[in-house]
Amino acid sequence: MRPIRIAIIGYGKIAADQHEPSIRGNPRLELAASSSRSGKGPKPAFTDWREMLRSVDGLEAVAITTPPKPRYEIARECLAAGLHVLLEKPPCATLSEIEDLACLADARQRTLFATWHARHNAAVPAAAQALAGQQIESMEIKWHEDVRKWHPGQTWIWDAGGFGVFDPGINALSIATAIFPGSLFVAGAKLTVPKGAQTPIAADIVLESAESCGDLACSLDWRRTEGEEWTIRTRTATGSEVLLTEGGARLFVDGTEQPVSGIGEYPDIYRRFVELIDERRSDVDVRPLRLVADCLLVGTSETVEPIDV
């Protein structure tokens, strides 16, 4: 079977670290080109993604790994050109944009895949199975890391549409919506915003659900200076504890680590993308993005000292 020719639009660190090796490691895919503002990336490398679309013969799919704000325009033109589209998280800057893209993909009979890479840890579906059908007594999410380590020198994260701490925090929400046995809603949020920024550096969120009889709390913070804490601790009404650590990579049930194995987050993303293309289907789950939007709608905010990254 001839491999699917795919290009990367927005070739930066995440594309170099994860997308390129995952594409090259999948025998059903052929990396045909890349584009970035610098022109760096797998050859042929372009500085103008539109020129790339015009110039590369036989292109069938694209992976869009730009910051979220420009993704809608790029994805819309790619779908209109008949390409299958994979979106890095978060899929777009707004819910309206991703919903419009989903409609266009359906009309054009092309695949649109809004990816949530943390869900592709093998421990995440195992945690969902452990919690299935349970009433939840409590859930405690802690997603704490150092912005200077993960976004050094990047100022777009503080602009409107840059998501701030929700850029990594949406990973936690993507896991929570995948494993929680019911719908989650935002009851309230406190957003901590550095002076001069438009997006928060920290957020304390109160969630609620009809399937919960206790507290559901989420703490996102970009001010941690030593190590990372990416944990989701869930207790059921029957007293069982399900704990995901290391961003969803490890699973503990009642204190005992569970054996899980998989091919890795991004290789599994591309396995799924190929599967969706073969079946001419899309996968667009907006629940994590909706929770972020709801935090910004109902949350209160406080201003703190400016941050220098």
Automatic annotation (TrEMBL):
Question: Which residue stretches, if any, does this entry annotate as coiled coil?
Answer: none
Where in the numbering of this chain does the Gfo/Idh/MocA-like oxidoreductase N-terminal domain appear? 4-113
InterPro entries noted in UniProt? Gfo/Idh/MocA-like_OxRdtase_N (IPR000683), Gfo/Idh/MocA_oxidrdct_glycsds (IPR050463), NAD(P)-bd_dom_sf (IPR036291)
Query: Which superkingdom does the taxonomy of this entry point to?
Result: Bacteria
The protein's matches in Pfam families, at most eight in alphabetical order, are given as:
GFO_IDH_MocA (PF01408)
Report the leader peptide range.
none
Protein name as catalogued = Gfo/Idh/MocA family oxidoreductase
Q: Which organism is it from?
A: Sphingomonas anseongensis
The uppermost taxa in this organism's lineage are: Bacteria, Pseudomonadati, Pseudomonadota, Alphaproteobacteria, Sphingomonadales
